[in-house]
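Internal tracking record. Fields below are filled automatically when a chain is submitted to the structure queue. Please do not edit lines marked as system-generated. If the sequence contains nonstandard residues, flag them in the REMARKS field before resubmitting.
Queue: standard
Priority: normal
Entity type: single polypeptide chain
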Amino acid sequence: MTEEKEKIEKQEITITGFGGQGIVLAGRILGKAAVIGDHRESTFIQSYGPEARGGACSAQVIISDGSIYYPYIRHPDILACMSQAGFDKFIGQLKDDGILLIDQDLVKPSGIERDFFSIPSTKMAEELGRTMMANIIMLGFLTAITKIVSMDAARNAMVESVPKGTEEMNTNAFNKGADYGLAVLKGREKKAAGKKGA
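SYSTEM-GENERATED OUTPUT FOLLOWS
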């Protein structure tokens, strides 16, 4: 067996924002999608600041092909930020080659020299009539950009996790975020192809 085959594929994800944004729910859905939909291993840890609503909070998810022996994250592969305080707290921990996603209306990523993906998730949620769905839009975006879990697994886990009666609304929000992410990737591919052709 090659060394490459023996190396277990494992990725660590931190989602951060403030209490009341549904950060913990987004993390829980991601972990559930990995386990139930994609048949992988997953751990999930949540943390709150001193105040729940309005205070800093984060969800830490580890997704792996094999056993996970330690559930805490030191240096995430993926960091999704939905508040400035969350960004300021966790940006220093993101791996050098890690993927950064931000809510562009709530996070100003100043002082960093790295690539990142941004989405106006809160604004998009407001347009849908529910600011509370910004987390689901971000989840769709994260799934499309990182492919950390399959789209179907994430969508199914989300439908099973949101309050009864809101499934259709949340599916619409998830799809909006995913479509936005796919459009961003396509735009980058075109730009890269254009550079190669120049």
